[in-house]
Amino acid sequence: MPEVCMRLHLEALDGGLYLATSSDLPGLVAQGRTVAETIEIAHDVARKLIESYEEHGDPLPDGIKRPGREMDMDIAVGIG
């Protein structure tokens, strides 16, 4: 499967957990102990959801984009 891009929303939850959702890909919900773990889980969930769209011949939601020559994104970097 070629790569696609979408927006991911991360929220810090009580108890030190993180929640990821995406308005670009309905149904994507992932929870993890760190930002990096949550993004990794969200990546796997997104891949499975997109594969399901493709298997059923459904068009991808409008928020799902093919990467262009340039793109901007925020990344999480662990410190200390």
Question: What's this model, at a glance?
Answer:
By secondary structure, the chain is of the alpha+beta class. It has one helix at residues 35-55, and strands at residues 9-12, 18-21, 29-32.
Characterization of this structure:
The radius of gyration is 14 Å and the shape is globular. The mean pLDDT is 91. The longest helix has 21 residues, at 35-55. The protein is built from 1 helix and 3 strands. It has a domain at 9-55. By secondary structure, it is α+β, with helices and mostly antiparallel strands. Helices cover 26% and strands 15% of the residues. Strands 1-2-3 form a 3-stranded antiparallel β-sheet, covered by helices on one side. It has one helix spanning 35-55; strands at residues 9-12, 18-21, 29-32.
